[in-house]
From TrEMBL:
The lineage of its organism: Eukaryota, Metazoa, Chordata, Craniata, Vertebrata. Residues 1-321 form the Endonuclease/exonuclease/phosphatase domain. This is Protein angel homolog 2 isoform X5. Pfam families: Exo_endo_phos. It comes from the Eukaryota. Gene3D superfamilies: Endonuclease/exonuclease/phosphatase. Transmembrane segments: none annotated. InterPro entries: CCR4/nocturin_mRNA_transcr, Endo/exonu/phosph_ase_sf, Endo/exonuclease/phosphatase. It comes from Mesocricetus auratus (Golden hamster).
């Protein structure tokens, strides 16, 4: 399950988004029991929650989920933001191999001055056989600001680099990956397409068009090439760069060779840094198709006074036959997850028949996303 549960502080700070709601349904004392009831009802093995407020997490959310058999890991936003992301899993089903938080704020890089975060876990299924494969679960909440596509893409690249590091196996392949969260980007946008297609040429792309949240003319500065500076340490392939340290031989000629090799390496890195092409090496599919099969109307994952769109996703590394194989896909032999079922989403019209979100029964301004997978062993 992926679920943005709407932090109470954010609800109160943005009360203009909830003018359509009856006041009692907005109180945390009303909302949390409803959210917990949903979580109990769907009984997912893994929960990826966003907008988890720190004080509520400590006093109510974590204890409640632990009593349901979940082990909980939490990463709060940096700075003074009181909410974050949690990944909770049934400890009867998985054991925890590693916890890897990702902070998108970098004080040494002016571009990265926002406090969003990601969280990446490596889990091992508890199954009665010696070599069960591990599975990588990632959760994030990217920057909202529709006019800062440069920051959004860089945050995504940082998350993908961490996933690549965590999910990488000794034989060069990746273990199965599920990447959940609120990506603050709509289906078909350049950011969404980059996740699904594994490549993006952003030359000439306006920063306000990256996420597709707005069709206005604001934020029309063009993305710089490269988007992020080299000192971030992440390549255009969205992996951590390993500094090349050429071996220096004892002989003079060897030393010259090493210097020439170093110059060559620097030139190569410089050439890569000026490319306007981003890539990643995962073969990711979306659990949802974003349009209802019968009517063709768009699904929505969030609905309040000002908008009703899809911004929440569950992406997963599909088996070979599940995903369209693009060029270079042989690099990305990940596989292992077969999508069996998903919880249906609703249209904007559906939601306004129950007075939008939050309402008496649905206590966030987002809907929960739910998928059932088979893990191939």
């Amino acid at each position: 399950m992926s679920y943005n549960i709407l932090s109470q502080d954010l609800l109160e700070d943005n009360s203009h988004l909830y003018r359509h709601c009856r006041r009692p349904v907005l109180h945390w004392g009303f909302r949390f029991p409803n959210i917990l009831k949903e979580i109990k009802h769907f009984d997912a093995d893994v929960l990826c929650l966003q907008e988890v407020q720190e004080d509520h997490y400590g006093t109510e959310i974590k204890p409640s989920l632990e009593s349901l058999g979940y082990h909980c890991e939490y990463k709060m936003k940096t700075g003074r933001k009181p909410d974050g992301c949690a990944i909770c899993f049934k400890h009867s089903r998985f054991s925890l191999l590693s916890v890897n938080p990702v902070e998108f704020c970098r004080r040494d890089i002016p571009l990265l001055d926002r406090d969003n975060i990601g969280l990446v876990l490596l889990l091992q299924p508890r199954i009665p056989r010696a070599a069960s494969p591990s599975i990588c679960i990632a959760n994030t909440h990217l920057l909202y600001n529709p006019r800062r596509g440069d920051i959004k893409l860089t945050q995504l690249a940082m998350l993908l680099a961490e996933i690549s590091s965590v999910a990488h196996r000794k034989d060069g392949s990746f273990c199965p990956i599920v990447m959940c969260g609120d990506f603050n980007s709509v289906p078909g946008s350049p950011l969404y397409s980059f996740i699904k297609e594994g490549k993006l040429n952003y030359e000439g792309l306006a920063i306000g068009k990256v996420s597709g949240q707005e069709q206005s003319s604001r934020g029309q500065r063009i993305l710089s090439i490269p988007i992020w500076p080299p000192n971030l340490g992440i390549s255009q392939n969205c992996v951590y760069e390993v500094p090349q340290v050429p071996r220096v031989e004892k002989t003079d000629s060897g030393s010259d060779l090493a210097e020439a090799q170093q110059e060559k390496t620097e030139v190569l890195m410089a050439a890569e840094n000026v490319s306007s092409r981003l890539q990643h090496h995962f073969s990711l599919s979306s659990v949802y198709s974003h349009y209802l099969p019968d009517t063709g109307l768009p699904e929505v994952t969030t609905c309040h006074s000002q908008s009703a769109i899809t911004v929440d996703y569950i992406f997963y590394s599909a088996e070979k036959e599940d995903a369209a194989r693009g060029p270079g896909a042989e690099d990305a032999l990940v596989g292992g997850l077969k999508l069996l079922a998903r919880l249906s989403l609703l249209t904007e019209q559906d939601l306004w028949t129950v007075n939008g979100l939050p309402n008496e029964h649905n206590s966030s301004d987002h809907l929960p996303l739910l998928a059932k997978f088979r893990l191939e062993l």
